[in-house]
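Action item from last week, closing it out:
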Amino acid sequence: MKSIFEEMDGTYRQVGDYFIPNLVLPDDGNYQIGKYGRIRRSYLKEHHPILYNSYMLEGTLFKHLAEIDQACNERMEIIVSAMSEQEGVTEALKATDQMEWVRRKNNIRNRAEEIVLTELVYA
């Protein structure tokens, strides 16, 4: 009598006295995962292990992480440009006082990153 796994054309390999099914996760793409994708992976692993395992077993973890990373990068660009315009951090300031421009720009990036992490990564 065949098992359900064998009826679905599944195969086994013998390791010692045990037969282990040959399981392979589907590989549907080569995803580039950046900073925010890695942060999301760590967050899921530590705080939502069931969701993390679900993504892993379905083979959609890397797709999810790539989508989060892309969304975070796009949101960062939008927020940084809007805050820079609102606070007057322009090329004119850069030409007159570079250190002040760098200080303000870093401040804006840090605040924007906190917003992005809260809204997208830790949600």
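Closing note: The chain has a mean pLDDT of 92.
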